[in-house]
Write a structure and sequence with these properties.
The chain has a six-stranded parallel sheet with strand order 9-8-7-10-11-12, sandwiched between helices. Helices cover 44% and strands 13% of the residues. It has 367 residues and is α/β, with parallel strands linked by helices. The protein folds into two domains: 192 residues, 3-Layer(aba) Sandwich (Rossmann fold), CATH 3.40.50.2000; 158 residues, Glycogen Phosphorylase B (Rossmann fold, 3-Layer(aba) Sandwich), CATH 3.40.50.2000. The protein is globular and about 65 Å long.
Length: 367
């Protein structure tokens, strides 16, 4: 059995949850002696640096207008060439573009993974999403109708698919994601002081501003407490103005990350907070659990499914609730320890090995 993965996610992102998912899947295909092909020619993605798995090359080491468009065009043409050769058994595209269906149906089965339905759920609230809603919906209808099997990363995501699209429920398989971070060799470091950790992008449905506004009284009261924002890019001018108006610029800090830095941030934080309005799965939840970090989660979408009883839950639309739960964790070390133990136990339910074995069962069923 030979699996083909295309270029899409490795062209679109240099670091992120979806590329991590396909990387972890590919690693396990290697371990289980399954053949695979990656149709990627150029990539700066962190995971494609692993030359034992990928044969990608870095693109031109200079920035210029149209750079990303050119890189993606070359990668797509390269993917089309590999697809047309047909030297594979199963095709597993890595993102939502249906370029390979535009000239007719594939001759081989293909499996598609749905990570979330953000466009469908939030286009009415966020104009930036609305601009490409029609294109996204059209693509997803094609994927759902023409794919041989669909993987949903949570039961919540499966339920969303069935809510928004007319699709045979029997072709949708729920396979949970997992965590890649490990505490091996990482010692506790208390020199950073007390901080709450927020991870990833801060825009749209991530609810960053609502949460920061909610806990501003706590930050104002506890001047030594900080909120560290890991990843997500530097604060833009609007965010800087927002923090300045709240008077907490010195207490809310953004820092770039890689896996090592992120693990240390989880380990050394008082707790991790995920006030998001929606997640298809929410890998940071498991990253925190595995990093011995207490967790506060929104009580929406997939997060209660993933977090179980191992997290303290907040209503992401209720600032009073967000403040009171944050204060509860901040002032009660015993409560944090209780949830730290629960988190370790909950994390044991998820593994990339389990994900890969379940995925290979789907592949095998299509041959």
């Amino acid at each position: 059995m030979k699996i083909l993965f295309d270029h899409q996610i490795y062209s679109n992102q240099n670091y992120g949850g979806i590329s991590r998912y396909f990387y972890e899947l590919t690693k396990r295909l290697t371990a289980y002696d399954q053949e695979y092909i990656h149709s990627i020619y150029f990539s700066e993605n962190e995971f494609t640096r692993n030359n034992s798995i990928f044969n990608a090359r870095p693109f031109l080491p200079v920035n210029f207008k149209g750079r990303e468009t050119i890189k993606k065009y070359i990668n797509q043409k390269y993917s089309e060439k590999i697809i047309n050769k047909g030297n594979y058994d199963i095709f597993h595209p890595t993102y939502y573009d249906t370029y390979y269906l535009n000239r007719g149906s594939l001759s081989k089965p293909f499996v598609f993974t749905f990570h979330d339905l953000i466009h469908e759920k939030f286009s009415h609230k966020y104009p930036d999403i609305l601009t490409d809603l029609k294109e996204v919906v059209t693509s997803r209808k094609k994927l759902l109708s023409q794919s041989s099997a669909v993987i949903a990363v949570s039961q919540n995501t499966k339920n969303d698919i069935l809510h928004y699209y007319d699709v045979d429920e029997s072709k949708i398989h729920v396979i949970h994601l997992a965590n890649s971070l490990t505490l091996d060799g990482i010692e506790k470091d208390s020199s950073k002081g007390d901080y709450i950790l927020f991870v990833g992008h801060r825009g749209i449905y991530k609810n960053f501003r609502m949460y920061v506004t909610a806990i501003q009284p706590l930050l104002d009261r506890e001047k030594s407490l900080r909120l560290i924002c890991a990843g997500g890019g530097s604060f833009n001018p609007d965010e800087q103005d927002f923090l300045k108006k709240l008077g907490i610029t010195s207490q809310v800090i953004q820092t770039p990350i890689d896996d090592s830095i992120l693990t240390r941030l989880y380990r050394d934080s008082l707790f991790f907070v995920f006030p998001t309005l929606y997640e298809g799965f929410g890998i940071p939840t498991l990253e925190a659990f595995n990093s011995d970090c207490p967790v506060i989660l929104s009580n929406v979408s997939s997060l209660p499914e993933v977090g179980g009883d191992a997290a303290l839950y907040i209503d992401p639309n209720d600032q009073c609730d967000m403040l009171s739960k944050t204060e509860a964790f901040y002032y009660d070390a015993a409560l944090r320890d209780e949830y730290r133990v629960k988190g370790r136990k909950q994390a044991e339910k998820y593994s990339w090995d389990k994900m890969a074995l379940q995925t290979m069962e789907i592949y095998q069923s299509l041959l």
